[in-house]
Amino acid sequence: MLSSSLPPLEQLYLGLDLSTQQLKCLAITGSLSMVHEEIVTFDSDLPHYGTKKGVHMDSALNEVTAPVAMWIEALDLALSRMKKAGFEFGRVRGVSGAGQQHGSVFWSEEAEGALGGLDPGKGLMEQLAGEENGLGGVFTWERSPNWQDHSTQAQCDAFERHVGGEEILAGITGSKAHHRFTGPQILRFYQRFPGRYERTSRISLVSSFLCSLLLGRIAPIDIGDVCGMNLWDMRSNTWSQELLDLSAPDLGSRLGGVEMQPGKHLGPVSGYFVKRFGFSEECIITSFTGDNPSTILALPLRPLDAIISLGTSTTLLMATPTYFPSPSYHLFNHPTDKGLYMFMLCYCNGASAREKIRDEIISASTSSSDPWKGFNEKALSTPPLGKRLKTDDAKLGIYFPIPEIVPNVRAGTWRYRISPTGNLKKVESFDSGADARAIIESQALSMRLRANPLLSTSTPAQPQRVYLVGGASKNPAITKVLRQVLGGKEGVYRLDDFVAERWEEGGRIVKVGEGYEEGVWERYGDVLGAFKEVERRIGSEE
């Protein structure tokens, strides 16, 4: 919790972020100064749900879900802590937020009435949770699929087969079929639980679910977040009726309308929050969006500027005026700017893959107070591609501790050598320095390979600026290798926070180095074809 004194009557704005592992509430002034931060970490603050890193995993079913009740209790807890700390909710004039993308919440027909009739003398959990199954009559399923879920391969195949292949599906919806996307998840839910689906009155995304709690009624899905469902026709900006019909009966009425106006004022905050926490009746709730669309709003990005989020997952985001769909990446509607699209690459194996190699290196080295010290030393002392001489083989490694979505392959580790003549040879191991560098290189090469079509009009084909966010953005080895592989005509920058001084070059935006490094960038370009072939070989093993 972080608080500071406020000038009299200064208006505040509250942002909520419902991510995989925590709920964060951030209060700022109109000048973007942060005045209060409240975080509820699910594993430690709500241990009775038994989650690990915010989710339940069923390896037999490749299923990853989160308990919806946990999110409700987290909101209750966060606001109660803020009230106890003396936070003045009456100064809040607007609330918006973000939710982890793709996850779905299934409401019963009693939900609308329950949301609008909450008793301010009782907590949210007390009124929305049932005694037997955890959520009684307000929800028809007590869980929500998480973006790490891999249980929907059959449903993804059905989506692509139905329209004539992954290329056509990407053309319609901006993405090929993905395990985590809401359409395939709803199809699986309907196939497994037809009775529960029949009792389902409305279906929300995580973002619109959180918005609904504060609004006191079911909120519409946001125009940016809707694109992560494999159900929205990007060219016509309407639901794709053929994909709705494939997924489940009468799905359109359950999903409801989509809010086409970005950031629209949806209405005042629910009277429940006015009476229980002291919000002003004039406090406005605006549309909530997905966590990835919200990330691209962290900066006023120009076309072909890129943000790389180095968190649990690794995500590359760019704003582009070009609708050039491909199964290799995602194109979403931009969350605020009509006429722009958001290009997105999202990898399950982000921090976990880097940490696995780090831990293997640490176990064989002397102890240090900095857990990354040994990893960084080895990565920085190893030349690009592990190649010291022109006659040496280049080294490419792919490291997936968990199943990956880009490309769609099982968990595993693969290492290859590339001879100076271009021959690929699979090997069992690298030295620790090569592994340390190759894990970063492989993640960056995958991003470069897939972003290349949208950068091909630029010479050389690289982003204008690259902004790094997330904990790993402060790691010198990771940032150096990323910029060597990806380039960045105007340099690579670290964004320490998404509020306050972030707009000032001398504030929380820190230039970590030049992007384009002549000679090195080209060397990585020379192995893109080999990297693509390695991915093809891995995929053919499935």
Automatic annotation (TrEMBL):
Keyword Transmembrane among UniProt keywords: no
Q: Which residues form the Carbohydrate kinase FGGY C-terminal domain?
A: 307-487
The UniProt keyword set, sorted, is: ATP-binding, Carbohydrate metabolism, Kinase, Nucleotide-binding, Transferase, Xylose metabolism
Q: Which protein family is it in?
A: Belongs to the FGGY kinase family.
Instruction: Point out the signal peptide segment.
Output: none
Single GO biological process annotation from the record: D-xylose metabolic process
Q: Which Gene3D superfamilies does this UniProt record tie to the protein?
A: 3.30.420.40
Q: Which superkingdom does the taxonomy of this entry point to?
A: Eukaryota
Known function: Highly specific D-xylulose kinase which participates in the catabolism of xylose. Xylose is a major component of hemicelluloses such as xylan. Most fungi utilize D-xylose via three enzymatic reactions, xylose reductase (XR), xylitol dehydrogenase (XDH), and xylulokinase, to form xylulose 5-phosphate, which enters pentose phosphate pathway.
What protein am I looking at? Answer: Xylulose kinase
* EC annotation from Swiss-Prot or TrEMBL: 2.7.1.17
Record's CDD domains? ASKHA_NBD_FGGY_SpXK-like
Question: Which GO molecular function entries does the Swiss-Prot or TrEMBL record give?
Answer: ATP binding; D-xylulokinase activity
- Kindly state which reaction or reactions the protein catalyses: D-xylulose + ATP = D-xylulose 5-phosphate + ADP + H(+)
